[in-house]
Amino acid sequence: MKKFIITFLSMLLVFIATAQDSTNDVASAQSTGLRADGKIYVVVAVIVTILLGLYVYVIRLDRKISRLEKQS
Fold first, then answer.
1. What is the pLDDT tens value at each position of the chain, 72 positions in all?
2. What gap in Å lies between CA 38 and CA 61, rounded to an integer?
3. Which domain holds residue 49?
C-alpha cells in the first residue's frame, strides 16, 4: 500500500510540474506537426475507415454465427 501511495504521489507531482508550462508554448505546439500540414485529417480518415471495417466485420460474423446456431 505504501508503494502505491508513493507511486501515486510521484505521478501527481509530474502532472503538476507539467501543468506549469506557459500557454504560449501550448499554442505554438498545437500548430506544428500533423495539424500544421493538414495531415491530421488523413490520420483521422484512416482510423475511421479501420474502425468502420472492424464494425462491419463483427456484424457479419455475428450474423453468420447466429445462422449456424439456428441450423444446429
1. 777 677 777 776 777 766 555 555 555 555 666 666 778 888 899 999 999 999 999 999 999 999 999 998
2. 36
3. 2-71
